[in-house]
Amino acid sequence: MEELFTKKEAADYLKVSERTIDRLRIKLNLPVKRIGRQIRIPKSSVELLLKQDTMSAKERQKTINNLYGE
Questions:
Q1: Measuring CA to CA, how many Å separate 15 from each of 9, 10, 18, 52, 58?
Q2: What is the pLDDT of residues 43-70, one digit of tens each?
Q3: How far apart, in whole angstroms, are the C-alpha atoms of residue 6 and residue 42?
Q4: Partners of 38 in the β-ladder
Q5: How is the chain split among helix, strand and coil, in percent rounded to 5?
């Protein structure tokens, strides 16, 4: 199973605020896992955030689709 981050863990990993994580997640339409009312961010989604400046939106969406078999 893939490693999952809380918003705080993802924010700490990327050295940004939790609000920035929310904005990026929404803006980039990153997949997350919901566990009850909580969200967990797969490590692959965090890695995509690191690559956001070097990938086009089309490349990013293709990568996300490949990760989740869509």
A1: 10, 8, 9, 15, 26
A2: 988 887 777 666 666 776 676 666 555 5
A3: 9
A4: 35
A5: 55, 15, 30
| E-assigned strand segments in 1-70 | 4-5, 33-35, 38-42
* Token pair in block for residue 57: 């939106």
Q: Count of CB atoms within 10 A of residue 22's CB? A: 13
The pTM is what? 0.67
Dihedral sign for Cα atoms in the order 29, 61, 10, 39: positive
